[in-house]
Amino acid sequence: MSTASELVLALKELEKVGTDGAVNSGTLSDLAQSSPVSAWTPELVIILSISFLIFGLVVLIVIVNLAKKDIDSSAILKITGLPLIVVSATFLIVVGYSQSQIAPVIGLLGTIAGYLLGYKSNTHKETNAKEPPPTSLD
To answer: Where are the transmembrane segments (predicted)?
Structure first.
């Protein structure tokens, strides 16, 4: 059973609602103050942002080391480009940009990722090239 104080609180809430079911303006501020607490604290955002930037720097260091070892540049782009794109997109989300601000950037990053995955190097020529049929000179 409910206690008397809970019943009084419920009656007060009912009084705040108008006869047509609309909430009176006095309760809007109450609703705004009782919004759920976000799990994203400023400290957590800073830590995540710094960790994503550090990971991005590690990937850049790997790129430089691979470039010094004379590895094919298209392979380096494919191996390291996609993690950099993921890091960039995740960083923008963690930092807290709105959906309208981040949508064009995510589209651009997706375009770059599609290019990297679809890019074919000219060094790998097709080995199944058909030879022209022999002509007879009878």
So the answer is: 44-64, 76-95, 101-119
